[in-house]
Amino acid sequence: MKFFLDSANISEIKESVALGLIDGITTNPSLVAKEKKDFRKLIEEICQIVDGPISAEVVATDEEGMVEEGRSLQRSTRTLW
Length: 81
Description:
Helix content: 40-55%
Radius of gyration: 13 Å
Oligomer: single chain
Strand order of the largest sheet: 1-2-3
Distance between the termini: 22 Å
């Protein structure tokens, strides 16, 4: 069984990683908005902390926009994996 933390809070993520409690992160734009940080920069920071899968939802509502947004996130974080 794998455990994923649903958060965008860097303190929570660092604590969970340090305790060895999580295998990855799931997050979404509403969780990121609560942190009052730039979405892409926060996702990049999470990628630097977590050695595992990271799921970040897109905000586009059309297929083309979703695919482009996903690819853009992948490109900007690929070197961090």
